């Protein structure tokens, strides 16, 4: 086997560790030793119950002792434990001193992560739709995200922040490509029983198509997010990361536009019981809990949501209770805790922005109108550029949260 093969295997192992779990790639629990004696048992338990593992989902893997907790791989709690955390006094991480009267965000390092890849990869990512092929621009979410990120960069920089772009083009951050992953994909997935009655070439064609789709998802979801995490955590090292996205509803016929519209903002948390069976998920939960980013995430997300509500008047996109993949973190249902691959892997506070439904009738028309100064009449009402509205609302929320009052 050649060197390129093993380079790919090592990359895939790192990606699996970062996102999906892999039997021969295990997390280094010793990385958590720097958090020893930085949190009280009461604080640890509260954050687990309220944010990271509601409904006692992590309890089967924990054994509390004298001022410490042992974390096990299975509910049988067989020795040795994965990690032993010693409790101490609460010592939240030091944060930079931010703001001056002339530059409210001075001293703040903000990473902007425009979601998805886009361009040549947009159709593969399934972040592409078009209603009228003769007249409409084909909506690519990645292009929307990049344009908003550039506008937001200028606004935050004008307020004194150091702004770091995780991505600013349509090239993947990961060096892996689907064709390379396909070469190493191994056996075809098992046949689909729905097609048992069909000729063998039909069945093989379906299996090869399923394998290709699986490999593509590994590329644009798993590998790409892991590569962005590596860049954020090792190179950029921001104080906070804003993940810029647009939402969607329905996802039926791509020509269908909907009346529903709303706002959602995610912070990290709410690991599901099935997820916590994997040691990698336990590791990420512990790391995010111990870095003590929750209070900042919650406060910043609240400030951004308030600024967005004031600017748009839009309702929350969802109203769901505890128990599912989204755990409500506010009574008004704008804020949810969710265990996403990006906010799980990115160090420090991470706000995942999901305003608007791209396939809402008005939003689609506003996207087709492009970016512009002032206001325009669209579908019988007057609107500013949707991209400037997005950037202005987020910037206002960030400034509201971090700005120091004048002396």
User: Which spans of ≥5 residues are poorly predicted at pLDDT below 50?
Assistant: 1-24
What is the molecular shape?
globular
DSSP strand count: 14
Strand percentage lies at 5-15%
Q: What is the strand arrangement across the widest sheet?
A: 7-4-8-12-9-11-10
Label the structural class: alpha/beta
**Average pLDDT reading:** 91
Distance between the termini: 66 Å
**Main sheet, how many strands, which sense, barrel?**
7 strands, mixed
Summarize, please:
By secondary structure, the chain is α/β, with parallel strands linked by helices. Helices cover 39% and strands 14% of the residues.
Task: Walk me through this protein's architecture.
This protein has eleven helices and 14 strands. Strands 7-4-8-12-9-11-10 form a seven-stranded mixed sheet, with helices on both faces. The protein has a three-stranded antiparallel sheet with strand order 1-2-3, with no helix packed on it. With 407 residues, it is of the alpha/beta class. It is globular and about 70 Å long.
Keywords for this entry:
407 residues, alpha/beta, seven-stranded mixed beta sheet, 11 helices, 14 strands, 39% helix, 14% strand, disordered N terminus
Write the layout of secondary structure elements.
Blueprint: H1 3-20, H2 41-52, E1 62-65, E2 68-71, E3 83-86, E4 109-114, H3 122-125, E5 128-129, E6 139-140, H4 141-158, E7 162-165, H5 178-183, H6 200-236, E8 240-244, E9 263-268, H7 279-290, H8 294-312, E10 327-328, E11 335-338, H9 341-345, E12 350-355, H10 361-369, E13 375-378, E14 381-384, H11 386-402
Parallel strand pairs: 4-7, 4-8, 8-12, 9-11
Antiparallel strand pairs: 1-2, 2-3, 5-6, 9-12, 10-11, 13-14
Helix pairs in contact: 1-6, 4-11, 8-11
């Amino acid at each position: 086997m050649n060197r390129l093969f093993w380079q790919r295997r090592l990359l895939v192992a790192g990606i699996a560790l970062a996102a999906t779990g892999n039997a021969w790639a295990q997390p280094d629990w010793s990385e958590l030793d720097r958090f020893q004696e930085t949190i009280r048992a009461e604080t640890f338990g509260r954050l687990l119950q309220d944010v990271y593992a509601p409904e006692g989902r992590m309890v089967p893997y924990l054994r509390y002792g004298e001022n410490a907790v042992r974390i096990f791989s299975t509910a049988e709690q067989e020795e040795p434990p994965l990690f032993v955390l010693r409790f101490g006094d609460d010592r939240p991480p030091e944060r930079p001193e931010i703001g001056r009267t002339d530059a409210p965000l001075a001293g703040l390092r903000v990473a902007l992560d425009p979601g998805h890849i886009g361009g040549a990869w947009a159709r593969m990512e399934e972040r592409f739709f078009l209603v009228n092929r003769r007249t409409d621009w084909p909506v690519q979410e990645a292009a929307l995200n990049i344009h908003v990120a550039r506008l937001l960069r200028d606004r935050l920089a004008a307020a004194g922040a150091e702004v770091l772009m995780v991505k600013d083009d349509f090239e993947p951050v990961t060096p892996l490509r689907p064709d390379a992953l396909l070469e190493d994909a191994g056996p075809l997935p098992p046949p689909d029983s729905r097609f048992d009655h069909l000729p063998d070439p039909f069945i093989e064609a379906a299996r090869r198509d399923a394998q290709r789709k699986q490999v593509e998802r590994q590329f644009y979801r798993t590998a790409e997010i892991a590569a962005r995490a590596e860049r954020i955590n090792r190179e950029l090292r921001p104080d906070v990361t804003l993940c810029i996205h647009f939402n969607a509803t329905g996802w039926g016929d791509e020509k269908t536009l909907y009346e529903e519209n709303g706002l959602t903002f995610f912070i990290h948390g709410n690991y599901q019981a099935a997820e916590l069976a994997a040691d990698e998920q336990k590791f990420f939960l512990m790391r995010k809990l111990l870095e003590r980013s929750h209070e900042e995430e919650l406060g910043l997300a609240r400030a951004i949501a308030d600024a967005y509500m004031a600017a748009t008047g839009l309702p929350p996109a969802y109203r769901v209770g505890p128990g599912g993949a989204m755990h409500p973190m506010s009574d008004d249902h704008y804020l949810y805790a969710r265990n996403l691959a990006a906010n799980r892997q990115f160090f420090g506070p991470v706000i995942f922005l999901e305003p608007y439904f791209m396939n809402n009738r008005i939003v689609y028309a506003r996207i087709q109108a492009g970016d512009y100064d002032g206001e325009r009449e669209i579908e019988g009402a007057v609107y500013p550029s949707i991209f400037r509205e997005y950037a202005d609302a987020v910037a206002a929320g960030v400034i509201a949260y971090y700005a120091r009052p004048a002396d």
